[in-house]
Amino acid sequence: MPAALRAARFPRPRSAAPLAVLGAVALLLTAAPAAFGDAITPEHAGGSRNADDIHTLYVIALSIGAVIFVLVEGVLVTSLIRFRKRRGGDLPAQIRGNTPLEVGWTIGAASIVLILAVLTFAYLSDIKNPQRSAAATANGAGGIQLAALGQPKVPGGQGLQIHVNGQQYLWRYDYPGKDQVFSYVDMYVPVGTTVTLKITSSDVAHSWWIPKLGGKADAIPGHTNDTWFRINKAGTYAGQCAELCGEGHADMRARVIALPPDQFKAWMARQAADIKDSQAKLSLARQIRGEGSP
To answer: pTM, whole model, 2 decimals?
Structure first.
């Protein structure tokens, strides 16, 4: 048999190397811990009440969806097997319409939508409205501050309000008080205190999101968005910008560091002192440059 004919009849198998590399890359991406979060549900453990409520609502919707998926796929697979065309057999009967069945699944679908709507509105107030600061730590918040535009007030008035500003490619946090206190990337808060955030941006659209503390809030130039959280256990909660904002988007990370009230007060005092010292040194350097210039 000529070689050309053999090649035409028996083509050489293609190399499996590209598929193997693609599979390995996909496996590495899915195996990364951050890719899973809390596996198939939003992160919430150890965070704030609104994060817990978002998680609960998600699990309810996921469970209902899973039941519907199993039922639909079960009927589909059963139909494919039971009513398939068999060799030498007659064609399966074609069903053109079934009014009771159509009315039934219409009522069922409407009932599911109604149930989800009722559950969503039942949880919505807890997700949206700030909770009261813990009695033992409310006074450690650094003063009485109220919630931001459009956000209900903190019950009892005891809370901490922080201004969050998104910038390419970092976050700035401004704290209340007579002394200027701000930080970048890391937000420090006292445990047990309701923290309300006023979130905006100075350049492009960003999105502030710490998964274990609740839903994300967009940072939009010229507009203020609100969110809140209350952490009851000291620790570090990590997140990052959740809106594609430019070439440095992947590096725009954020952390919330929850401290006991006394440690938070100490951090506020130390931060204020460091800022004053830096401003004084900068002012002196500018004066020296000004005196030495022609």
So the answer is: 0.67
